[in-house]
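Quick note —
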Amino acid sequence: MSFASVAISQELCFPFDDAQKILRNEKEGDLDRRELELRRQQDVLKDQRIANLEKENDLLKQEIGLKDKIGEIKDMEILATRRALADMEKVTDRSLKLAETVKPKSAWEIYGPLGVIAIIVITIASVL
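Predicted structure written out below.
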């Protein structure tokens, strides 16, 4: 119960100016209490906003860290691909050299010397 209502309920007699001042002070006090409550609510909301912004900031830092790790992994992948390609070039060169040195022989190259040997054996056998 406000001071003004207590004063009226006890039927105190105040001069009119004093009663107006008391009423005005009581209204100003109510306004001040309401304003104080609104400011407290605003402070709570601001604290919540600050907490949310801090969480968002932490999440952004984590996201940046993950993006950096992804970049590092991509760099490692590119480096591994380059090494594999360099190794592949060496393997290709070696296989080409092996292919050049070990060419398959044609049938004439294989059967030619055998034919000559066969003719020599037949000739020797006919002479004896």
